[in-house]
Design a protein that fits this description.
With 212 residues, the protein is mainly alpha-helical. The protein folds into 2 domains: 32-150, Orthogonal Bundle (DNA polymerase, domain 1), CATH 1.10.150; 153-210. It is 51% helix and 6% strand. It is built from 12 helices and 6 strands. The chain has helices at 10-18, 39-43, 50-59, 65-74, 79-86, 100-104, 110-119, 126-146, 160-164, 170-179, 186-193, 199-206; strands spanning 32-33, 89-90, 93-94, 149-150, 153-154, 209-210. The strands form 3 sheets. It has a two-stranded parallel ribbon. The termini are far apart. 26% of the residues are buried.
Length: 212
C-alpha cells in the first residue's frame, strides 16, 4: 500500500525560518557572578558579613578566580567559608585561557578537570563541552561545572543571546558591540566601549570576549 504524501505549505516553511534560534549562551548559569551581584545579596551569602560584602564591591572587578580567592583569604575567611561562598558565587573561568590555579578553585573540579579543560582547547560551543567532559563525569556534573566557566564571545559574530549571557551586559552592550563591527583590536574595544562605561567595567567586559 503506497504511503500517503504530506504537503507542507511553503508559507509554513518560511515562518519556521523566521522563528528565533535557540539561545546559545556562552557564559554558564546557575552561579552568581561575584563581579556584578548586588551588595545586599552578597551580604546574605555564606561567609559574608555586611563589611566584607562592602569591601568586595569596592575591590571589584576581579580579573580572575585567583584574584577573588586572594581577596577572600585577605578578609580572613576560612577555607570552609570560601568553599561555601563558591557554591553560590564565583568569578567565571575562561575555558580557553583560565589557568590551572583558576580551574582548581572551581568546587569539585580537581586535577582531572584542570587537565581535561586544557586538553580540549580551543572550546567553541557548549555542545563540545557536553561531549568531551561528560565522558568523564556524566551530564549532571558537566552541567554543574558549566556554571563556573565561559566560552569567550566572538565580538564580530556573536548573536544577541551570546552577548546577553555576559553578566551585566544588557541591551545597551548588545547594541554597542554590534555597532562597532568589525572589531580589530583590544584598544578599539577600550576606546569605543569606554565612551559608555568606566575603565573598570570595560576591563570586566573584555574578559568575556574575543576578536576573531
Amino acid at each position: 500500500m503506497p504511503r500517503p504524501h504530506f504537503f507542507i505549505p511553503a508559507t509554513f516553511v518560511m515562518l519556521l525560518a523566521l522563528l528565533p534560534s535557540p539561545a546559545r549562551a556562552q557564559v554558564g548559569t546557575g552561579i552568581l557572578d561575584a563581579n556584578t551581584v548586588a551588595e545586599a545579596q552578597l551580604a546574605g551569602l555564606p561567609g559574608m558579613t555586611p563589611a566584607v560584602a562592602k569591601a568586595l564591591v569596592a575591590a571589584r572587578p576581579f580579573g580572575s578566580a585567583v584574584e577573588l580567592n586572594t581577596f577572600l583569604t585577605g578578609q580572613k575567611l576560612t577555607t570552609e567559608q570560601i568553599a561555601a561562598f563558591y557554591g553560590k558565587a564565583f568569578v567565571h573561568v575562561n575555558l580557553n585561557t583560565g589557568t590551572r590555579e583558576d580551574i582548581l578553585l572551581i568546587p569539585g573540579a580537581g586535577n582531572r578537570m584542570a587537565r581535561e579543560f586544557a586538553e580540549y582547547r580551543p572550546w567553541k560551543t557548549w555542545a563540545q563541552f557536553d561531549k568531551e567532559i561528560s565522558k568523564y563525569v556524566g551530564q549532571p556534573e558537566t552541567d554543574r561545572l558549566k556554571g563556573y566557566v565561559f566560552i569567550p564571545v566572538n565580538l564580530n559574530t556573536a548573536s544577541d543571546q551570546d552577548i546577553l549571557s555576559i553578566p551585566g551586559a544588557g541591551a545597551r552592550m548588545v547594541r554597542e558591540f554590534k555597532e562597532y563591527r568589525p572589531w580589530k583590536t583590544k584598544e578599539q574595544f577600550e576606546r569605543e566601549i569606554g565612551k559608555y562605561v568606566g575603565a573598570k567595567e570595560v576591563a570586566r567586559l573584555w574578559r568575556y570576549v574575543v576578536i576573531e
